[in-house]
Amino acid sequence: MKKATKIVAYSFILICCSIGASVITTNYLSKKYGKVVYVSEQGAPYTTLSQTAFSSAGRTQPVDLTDAAEKTVHGVVHIKSTIQSRTQTYQEYSDIFDYMFGGRPRQRQYRTQPQVGYGSGVILTKDGYIVTNNHVIEKADEIQVTLNDNRVFTATLVGADPNTDLALIKIEGDDFPVIPMGDSDDLRLGEWVLAVGNPFNLTSSVTAGVVSAKSRKIGIYDGDESIESFIQTDAAINMGNSGGALVNTNGELVGINAALESPTGTYAGYGFAIPTTIVKKVVADLKEYGTVQRAMLGINGADVIAMRQDERNKDIDLGDVIDGVYILDVIDGGGALAAGIKEGDIITSINGKKVKTMNELQETIVQYRPGDKVNVTLVRDKKEKKIDVELKNFRGNTDIVTDTSFELLGAEFQEVPDQTRRQLNIGYGVQVSAVNNGLMKDAGIQRGYIILRINNQQIRSVDDVERLYKEAASSANQELFVSGVYPSGRRAIYAISLSNE
User: Fold this and answer.
1) Which positions are annotated as active-site residues?
2) Which is more confidently placed, 176 or 436?
3) Fewer Cβ neighbours under 10 Å: the N or C end of the chain?
């Protein structure tokens, strides 16, 4: 019995010591770092005593995000977009010879089904300007906006930019709740953010997470001039949250939620948002001009770090440069060529801002307009060099583009290179130099295609393409029949419908 009594006494002393040590440790950690969150063996919190957590930078970060949530939920709206049923007309030729030599086509018609889509949007101004994703409202005949207080408005489209997947719409009224614009450049990895959406028209919902990465490219936009430089977060972003807000702990907008990466189509830990460094410029252009004034540096490039990892580049001397953009090609008519930038140069910064990847370079350049000058720091022959470059638009000039109708084709054009003319034995034509989201991409036209005829008229310049496009858009048929050839010699004919009816 004495031995049993001793065991009980020792056990009691050990329990008291354990409790005492736990209290002392908790008090110490609380004084030094704030209160502590205990975690079970399975990793799930069972007691939350904490108001603070730790960021990857070693700073304390508030996990009480109620203030940020309350400031932002009313500034996020539900968007319903409707594409009405319409009749499509197209012409069908018996064979290519009928088309080329003036044969009479047969008229065909079909009726499309109505389509309804849903998404979210963010109120930017008290007078009703709202930013959302282009894919939320693309081709919509009617856009309906429901506020967090259940008021319903019909919105008008101000402008859209498929290359960044952003659109600006407007509702009529005043004193709407807004989310103030923040600076995504200030975000740090591990920083807490909220994803605010209104996917189900049941008022806004909020999820929380941290910034997992910046300047991510995930390959969801396949246009040649599409820009991807996403903020990656583990805050849950599901279908219907597209166009919603990514906000920091101050309740400031730092991104527009755009995509999720998942094998199942639902949230699996990877969400992506368009940073406000891009949003600010695109929204400003859409509001002022109705279309984005796209500045181009005029180069094709690759990440230095990726080139170092590729055995095929072992003969390229990259010197001591670790981060930057290696120039693979300098585009004719671009600002880089005019400024003296060469193939093989390595760009390391723009206006003093470091660029480590092509994504970061695109994100930086998209903030400028054609005609703006930027100072490019590059490495050439292992020596640093600074060059001033005047940025140009896709037409190779600095003019403001205000007529958006021709841009709906979603393509860029250039003269056919002399070598290609001789190889194909053609005396006229215009080559498609880039294909973005738009009518030509929808029709199946690919980069490199040489347009020889539109509606049976010869094409000798970009002006011919634009003229025939506008003629067709104002005609009864609203059809473009495009014939041409690829550099491989393969001939192809495409039908493009311009009708929205």
Assistant:
1) 135, 165, 242
2) 176
3) N
